[in-house]
Design brief:
The chain is built from 15 helices and 10 strands. By secondary structure, it is an alpha/beta fold. It comes from Trichomalopsis sarcophagae.
Length: about 325
């Protein structure tokens, strides 16, 4: 054992003794642009560490943070949940445009979410969150450049939050608040005022009826799967006023009747933009499809069984998470 220890010390002395501080290390012969490219491949925890190597590396590393436009909360990218939990590290990403942290990629992280949400740059354009625990999300409603927002199953999405969102996030074109059980008609009324909204996903909101659906000039997609209190009236108003709608998912909306189908048929007959209107409904609903099949219109109806719906839900959740 003693002989082996001496052998290790001898090898270490040989390595240290041969090091010459006056000889330039090969990596330092690279220019700054090359080093930035190399640093971009490192886990973020290592990028923080290399700032302590020398002044040149620290300056290059600081500049390289500006090249991050998209970021996910993934341990393979971060390398350490301790670094991920640090608001000081997140503040380095001043040019960040897209940030995603879903439960599936964050499951091994400790509980950093209440802190990181307030450390994100307000210039974000895309923000995705799923099944997380926050103490407050009000700062999201003040991200004026936000264009796409997904907050899945978050109890803090309330009517008050949506009012703030509608007042400040005028560039928002995609909004998904599926599973936000505290949202009522007041919140829906607020988000219908978003001028750029194209894709609205309101799946599994138990309180909404659709009475406050109104004119949304750019709306193309509406998903209200599993909204058990959603009624025909609001949807008919929406179809009549919004001629760019191409897709409505109403599976599991138990109070939808033939009144909506009749309205959709009339809308499809009078469309002049040649856009096909596609409705997804429950197969167990008592729908009369004969008038639709007897006319050559821009209306397509898909009736889903419970099993088909479950498969689609799983595919959608896999994509989301």
């Amino acid at each position: 054992m003693e002989t082996r220890a001496k052998s290790k010390r001898a090898r270490l002395n040989e390595i240290v003794g041969s090091w010459n501080p006056d000889v330039e290390v090969a990596i330092n012969k690279l220019n700054d642009d090359c080093l930035i490219k190399i640093f971009m491949f490192l886990p973020i925890v290592d990028r923080v560490r290399i700032e302590g190597v020398c002044k040149r590396w620290r300056n290059i590393s600081k500049e390289s943070w500006q090249h991050f436009k998209t970021l996910k909360a993934d341990l393979a990218i971060w390398g350490s949940d301790v670094v991920f939990c640090s608001p000081n590290v997140l503040k380095k990403f001043r040019q960040l445009k897209e940030f995603s942290f879903m439960r599936s990629v964050c499951s091994k992280l400790s509980d950093p979410f209440p802190r990181i949400i307030h450390s994100l740059p307000t210039t974000l354009k895309i923000l995705e969150m799923s099944n997380l625990i926050f103490s407050n999300i009000d700062c999201i409603g003040k991200m004026n450049d936000l264009e796409k927002l997904t907050i899945y199953k978050e109890d803090l999405v309330t009517d008050t939050f949506l009012v703030t969102l509608a007042e400040n996030c005028k560039k928002l074109y995609h909004l998904d608040i599926s599973g936000a059980k505290n949202v009522t008609e007041s919140g829906i009324q607020a988000i219908t005022s978003l001028p750029e909204i194209k894709h609205l996903v309101l799946n599994y909101l138990p309180e909404i009826t659709g009475y406050n659906f109104t004119y949304m000039p750019k709306l193309q997609t509406l998903c209200c799967r599993g909204c058990e209190h959603l009624k025909d009236d609001g949807l008919c108003t929406l179809l009549t006023m919004c001629d760019l709608i191409e897709f409505m998912d109403l599976y599991g909306c138990e109070q939808i009747t033939n009144v909506l189908l009749k309205c959709a048929l009339n809308v499809a007959k009078t469309r002049t933009n040649n856009l096909v209107l596609h409705l997804i409904l429950s197969q167990d609903g008592l729908f009369d499809l004969r008038p639709i099949y007897s006319h050559d219109t821009l209306l397509k109806i898909t009736l889903l069984t419970e099993r088909e719906s479950r498969d689609e839900d799983e595919d959608w959740l896999f994509w989301l998470l």
